[in-house]
Amino acid sequence: MSQISCAPPLVERAERLPLSGLLALAMTGFIAILSETLPAGLLDQIAGGMHISQAMAGQWVTAYALGSLLTAIPLVTLTQGWYRRRALLLAIGGFVLFNGLTVLSSSNALTLVLRFFTGAAAGLAWGLIAGHARRMVPVALQGRAMAVAMLGQPIALSLGLPIGTWLGAMLGWRATFVVVTLVALLLVVWVLRAVPDYPGQAAGKRPAALQVLRTPGVALVLLVILTWVLGHNILYTYIVPLLAAAGMAAEIGQVLMVFGLSALAGIGLVGLLVDRHLRKLVLLSLAGFAVATLVLGQASSWAMYLSIALWGVTYGGAPTLLQTACADAAGEGGDVAQSMLVTVWNSAIALGGIIGGLLLTGAGVAWFAPVALLLIGLAWLLAWAGRRSGFVAGSR
Fold first, then answer.
1. Which residues are CB-contacts of 65 (< 8 A; sequence separation ≥ 6)?
2. CB 94 within 8 A of CB 101
3. Positive or negative, the Cα torsion across 71, 77, 78, 80?
4. Residue 14 has pLDDT above 80, yes or no
5. Is-contact 220 385, C-beta < 8 A?
6. To bridge 67 with a disulfide, which of 10, 116, 206, 275 should be the other Cys (CB 3.0-4.6 Å)?
7. How far is the C-alpha of 45 from the C-alpha of 163, rounded, in Å?
8. Angle between helices 301-316 and 252-295 (to 10 degrees)
């Protein structure tokens, strides 16, 4: 009798999302994104305070991205055998240590090194968040769990960065980095209280990176990530010249707010449907992104806002969709696959800046949409081809 009476509550608990732990993972992503992008909103203060040019201050973002790009796979591979929460705390501790030392640094060369290591901490964190979120819930809820765990990215871009920029203008860039460091320190306590621990993989069961890459579907998903994120970043990195061409340069703040809020809506929608309709959502999101790209810069102000909103909705759920597809395809090699995803994602961001810059100085903004559409179309075809591995039809 006691076993029968206890069964319903156990099932009920299994069907609930452990929100506190998942939100702690989301806060980890929030700090990672805010640590990366904050210098972009504080270029004037950093340049003046460090006595460097704005272009050199912008390299703080580049050094961070390089840290994530170059170290994600090695760090995740090296920590495969660790208990998962210990590895996560190492990453968060990196935010505390290296952001804190950045506050004290008066040397730009030293700061660039610190930014590289902060990016390395982010690379490790992004390689762990998705896998940890999936292990916290039953298989049927993994997509929803990842949607919650991925909330940090759009919130950091839509709300965190504007607030951080405002704090920087009021208190100075060093005080803003102090705030980020203190939040990361509080996050350590939150993770210890709310995020469960799991053992790492035994030595004989740790898949090599090449073995994971050869797993059916993994390379296909990574190619979709490369083309999709590259197309997005060509447009997003140079959104200001795109808006200027449409006579809307003064509305950058409103445009980014619309994009961020729409991205949050996209995450909510994907979170509800990803476990039943992952493949359809990927194909529909890419198609919607293509429509938004066609409208960008070729319409009136209100139509531009509609296209920005459609872009945000279709891109907001992309991290959840792509990380879920990657983890599903990789199976036991999920953490290693996620580190590859981090590397490919950051490569797409860097290439977006390079290709977009070449287009801007050469053919001009008119070529942004055709190039982005070519990449989006390629991503759609690759996703369509992954019916049996990568982007499998039907419920997860």
1. 36, 119, 346, 349, 350
2. no
3. positive
4. no
5. yes
6. 116
7. 15
8. 80
- pLDDT higher than 90, residue 250: no
Task: Tell me which H or E stretch contains 75.
Answer: helix 54-78
Residue showing tokens 């740790």 = 206
Quick one: pLDDT band at residue 65, thresholds 50, 70, 90?
confident
- pTM confidence score: 0.77
Does the domain made of 207-396 have the CATH classification 1.25.40.10? no
Most confident of 149-158, 301-310, 341-350: 301-310
Number of Cβ within a 10 Å radius of residue 186: 12
Please say whether the beta carbons of 349 and 197 come within 8 A: no
DSSP code per residue over 138-198: -GGGHHHHHHHHTTHHHHIIIIIHHHHHHHHHHH-HHHHHHHHHHHHHHHHHHHHHHSPP-
Assigned CATH topology for domain 17-206 = Growth Hormone; Chain: A; (1.20.1250)
The burial class, CB within 10 Å (0-12 / 13-18 / 19+), for 249 is middle
According to the model, what pLDDT value does residue 83 have? 92
Helices (H), 252-367: 252-295, 301-316, 318-330, 334-361
Q: Is residue 297 very low, low, confident or very high in pLDDT (cuts 50, 70, 90)? A: low
DSSP 387: T
Rounded distance, CA 83 to CA 194, Å? 15
**CA separation, residue 218 to residues 227, 322, 391 (Å):** 15, 11, 10
Structure tokens at 233: 């970043």
Return d(Cα 105, Cα 114) in angstroms, integer: 9
Domain residue spans in the chain?
A: 17-206, 207-396
Tens digit of each residue's pLDDT (9 = 90 or more) over 176-205: 999 999 999 999 999 999 999 998 877 656
Which amino acid type is present at position 259? F
* Angle, alpha carbons 320-324-329 (nearest 5°): 155
Among residues 272, 267, 38, which one has the least CA distance to residue 160? 38
pLDDT of residue 167: 86
pLDDT of residue 342: 84
Query: Fold match between 17-206 and 207-396?
Result: yes
Instruction: Answer yes or no: is pLDDT of 339 > 90.
Output: no
